Amino acid sequence: MIGLLPALSLPWMDPEQLIHGFGSYALWGVALIIFAECGLFAILPGDSLLFTMGLFVAVGAVNQPLGLVCLVLTIAAILGNACGYALGRLIGPPLFRPRAGMVGRVLNPAYVTRTRQFLDYHGHRALILARFVPIVRTFVTLVAGVSRMSFARFIGFTAIGGVLWACGVLLLGFFLGNVTWIRSHIDLVLVAIVAVSLLPMLAEVVRHRLRRDGAGATEVIVETH
Predict the structure, then answer these.
(1) What is the rounded CA–CA span in Å between residue 76 and residue 27?
(2) Which of 39, 123, 132 has its CA nearest to residue 77?
(3) Is 34 exposed, middle or buried (0-12, 13-18, 19+ CB in 10 A)?
(4) What pTM was computed for the model?
(5) Which of 16, 59, 187, 222 has its CA 20 to 30 A from that of 23?
(6) How many other C-beta atoms lie within 10 A of the C-beta of residue 45?
(7) What secondary structure letter does DSSP report for 107?
(8) R_g (Cα) of the chain, nearest Å
(9) Residues 69, 167: contact at Cβ < 8 Å?
(10) Residues in Cβ contact with 173 at an 8 Å cutoff, skipping those fewer than 6 apart
């Protein structure tokens, strides 16, 4: 098994079984899975599937040029996100309407407003980095659609994320697929990369809060005088 998700021992979560099962149509089968994970909110082994695909191209088990594989799977990821965004815009208003009780608290429209504010502030980084986090990338496009994020802004940054994710993980598998530890911990490796990438964002948030707290303290001093 490769990665964390295939450890669930489900045939459709094992990237090797999936690729072998598609046979000569492996590239198009994998493209369909990548599209579904990015746009139809399906829980599938995207990271380990891309990594294994890169490895299989390297050893000749998939008889397709690496450039073509990168192109097709990048397009599948971007189109999937566009589909997820459209679904978010479509189902958002009826899903997040004011309700009483527990459902109203869970699907509170205020959450959409806060999410939109977050995406307005961190939108490009959130969309790019979310690509590398399992589960998160599956739903971030829905949230972007529900919160009515500008489609032009959304598709631009999700395209950047799609290129970095699909090509990056494929190349990682192509060049490092035979390194046993990386092959067995690909999800962990990608999460670690994202954690490091988040450090500048965290530093900016801390600076913003310190600046805000400092401004508040100044106002208090002025008022006391």
Answers:
(1) 11
(2) 39
(3) buried
(4) 0.70
(5) 187
(6) 27
(7) T
(8) 21
(9) no
(10) 50, 51, 52, 53, 54, 55, 57, 58, 186
Give pLDDT tens digits along the chain (225 positions): 333 333 334 555 678 888 888 888 999 999 999 999 888 876 777 888 898 899 899 988 889 999 999 999 999 999 999 998 998 888 776 766 666 666 556 556 665 666 566 666 666 777 787 787 766 777 778 788 887 888 888 899 899 999 999 999 899 889 887 777 776 776 676 666 656 555 655 665 677 677 766 655 555 454 555
Alpha-carbon dihedral of residues 42, 81, 128, 195, nearest 10 degrees? 0
Residue 63 is encoded by which pair of tokens?
């008889």
Q: Take residue 210 and report the two structure tokens written for it.
A: 């310190």
Handedness of CA 42, 73, 6, 140 (dihedral sign): negative
Structure token pair of residue 9: 């021992």
Query: Could you give the count of Cα atoms lying within 13 Å of 163 in the half-sphere of its Cβ?
Result: 5
* Token pair listed for 199: 């450090």
Which residues neighbour 66 within 8 Å (Cβ) at sequence distance 6 or greater? 54, 57, 170, 171, 174
